[in-house]
Amino acid sequence: MTDGERKQKTARVTPPDALALPHVVQAIAMCLKNQADFSSFLHAVPRSLWTPALSAFLDCTTVLPSSVNANWPRIVLHKMDWPPSVLALLAATLPLRPRIELQFAVRDAAPLASLVAALGPALSSVILNFYDSIMIQGRDQAISNLLSQRCPRLRRVAISVQSSSEKDAVKFIGLLAVVAHPLVSVSSLYLEGVTTVPRLGHLLASWLSTAPATKLRLANIAQMDHEGAIAFCDTLQANTTLQRLAIDKVPSLGGFHGRTLPVSLKTLAWESRPNRVVDDTTLTDLATAVGPTQLERLECSAFGQLATCPAAAPMLSQLQCLMVSWLHANYMPALIAGLSSVPALTSLYLCYCDVTSSTELLMETLATTCVHLETLRVIDPQLTRDGVTALLTGVLQLPLLTTLDLRMHLLDALHVLPELVAAGRHLRSLTLMNIGRNNYDHEKRAIYKALAQVPDVPFVAYTLPEDMDGSVVDALRRRADRRYQCYLAL
Q1: InterPro entries given for it (predicted)?
Q2: Is the dihedral angle over the CA atoms 440, 445, 447, 448 positive or is it negative?
Q3: What torsion, rounded to 10 degrees, do the Cα atoms 290, 293, 298, 304 define?
Q4: In the list 168, 349, 403, 431, which could disulfide-bond 163, CB 3.0-4.6 Å?
Q5: 139: pLDDT confidence band, cut at 50, 70 and 90?
Q6: What's the chain's average pLDDT?
Q7: Taking the CA atoms of the chain, what radius of gyration do you get in angstroms?
Q8: Read out DSSP for 397-448?
C-alpha cells in the first residue's frame, strides 16, 4: 500500500449533505450489529454529528468501571447500586434502545427501584440469584412488581435459588410472578433445595399461554404439585412459539404425562439423573411427547433407552444434533445401538462419557449408520492412547466429517502422529484439549515442532506459543498454495 493509499484509507469520511444530520447518523448507527462496526462508523464521521446518546454510549465503553460492560447493542451491569452520575450517563443512552442486562444478586427492592426508575424502559434481561436468607422477607413482591410494571422491554428472566431451608421459600414465592410477565420470551428457573413451590405449574402455564415464549429452562425443581404439572403440560402441548426447552431434574413433569411437545420446538434438553434407568412409564411418555415434533437438537442421557421406543422414531429419523453427557461405560452399548435410529445426524457430542472401551465400535457404527456426520466432539477424561488412535483412524471412514474435538493427554499426540496427520488431511478443523492441568505450553511446543517436520503438513495453527522457531511458524501458517488446510487448536 502506497502512502497516498494509506492516507486515503484512514481519512475521515465526509457524509453527503443529506446524511450530515445527527439524527440520520444515529439511525444508521442503531442498525449496526456489533461494537466494532458501531465504533468504526462513529469515528469515521465528524464528532459534531454525534447525538448525545451516541456520545454517552461510547463514554460507557471508556469511562465507566469494569462492572459496566458496554458492547453494542448491549450494556451489562454487574452491580446495582450506582451513583447518580453513572445512572445519568446510562440513561442518556436510552434513545438508542440498547439492551440493558442486570447480572447481579438482587436482595432488596430499594436499589432496584432506583435502577428501574432510570433504566427500566431499556432493561431487557435480569438474572436474579438468591442464596440462603439473603432475600429480605416481604420484598419479593415489590421486586416482581417493579420488573413487571416498569420494564416494558423485559424479555429474559433467570431466577436461581439455593436454599437449605423450606422456610426460605416463602421469601421468593412472590417473585415468581415475574415469570408470567406477558412480554418475557425467555425464562429460566433453578430451584436448589426448595421442596415445594406453590402454583409454579400454573404460573408457567399462564406464561406459555399469554407470552411470546421462545425459551424455557427448569432445573432442580424437586416437587411441583400434580395439578400444576398437568396444567403446565397441557399448555405446553398447545403452545406454538416455544423453540427451546430444557428440563433438568424436574421429576414431577416425568415425560410430560402423555402430552406432546410443541410443533415449534427445535431444541430439547431432558435429563433426569445420569446413569439411571428411566422407568417405563416416563420413557413411554417421553417418546410420545417427542415423536410428532421436528426437533433439530436433542440433549438426553437416556437416548439409548429412548431409541428403543417406536413412538420416538419419527423425530429421531430426522434429528440433526445429539448431545449425551455423563455416561458410564456400561451405558455406552445402548447409546451406540441407538445411533442406527438417527441416520440424518450431522453433529454428535459425547461429553464426559466413558468411551474408551467402546471407541472402535462407536466409530464403526457411525461409519455405517451416520454417514452425514459433520461434527464430532468426545470429552472423556479417561481417554487412553488406544482410544485416541481408534477415534482418529475412524475419522477417515466418515466422508462428510469436517470438525473433530477431542480431550486427551496432549503428549499422546506424539505417539499417534501418523493417525493425527491422516485425520488432518480429511478434516477442516481439529481441536485437541488437554486432560489435567491448564498450563501445557511444553506439550504444545513439542507437538507443533513435530508437525512442522511432516512433509506437506495439513495443519494451520490458530495460535502459536511465543518465540516459536521461524521454521515452525512458516510450516504451520496459512498459505494459498496449501494442498490441505485443517485448522488446529491446542
Answers
A1: LRR_dom_sf (IPR032675)
A2: positive
A3: 40
A4: 168
A5: low
A6: 86
A7: 27
A8: T-TT--EEEEEE-GGGGGGSHHHHHHHHTT-SEEEEEESS-S--HHHHHHHH
Share of the chain above pLDDT 70, in %: 88
pLDDT confidence of residue 75? 92
What does the block give as the cell for 349?
457430542
256 close to 234: Cβ distance less than 8 angstroms: no
Q: If you ran DSSP here, which 8-state letter would residue 236 be given?
A: H
d(CA 229, CA 210) in angstroms, rounded, equals 18
User: Measured in whole angstroms, how far is the alpha carbon of residue 198 from the centre of its chain?
Assistant: 30
Q: Show the cell assigned to 355.
A: 468411551
Q: What is the pLDDT of residue 6?
A: 44
Give the list of residues 6+ apart from residue 436 with CB closer than 8 angstroms, or none. Answer: 409
pLDDT of residue 5: 47
- Short-list 265, 268, 210, 201, CA closest to 234: 201
Beta strands at 74-77 and 68-71: parallel, antiparallel or unpaired: antiparallel
Cis, bond preceding 418 (omega within 30 deg of 0): no
Residue 229: C-alpha distances to residues 12, 269, 487 (Å): 61, 18, 48
Distance CA(182)–CA(154), nearest Å, equals: 9
More confident residue, 92 or 63: 92
Q: Do 262 and 242 contact (CB within 8 A), yes or no?
A: yes
- Using one digit for the tens of pLDDT, what is the confidence trace for 26-52? 999 999 999 999 999 999 999 999 999
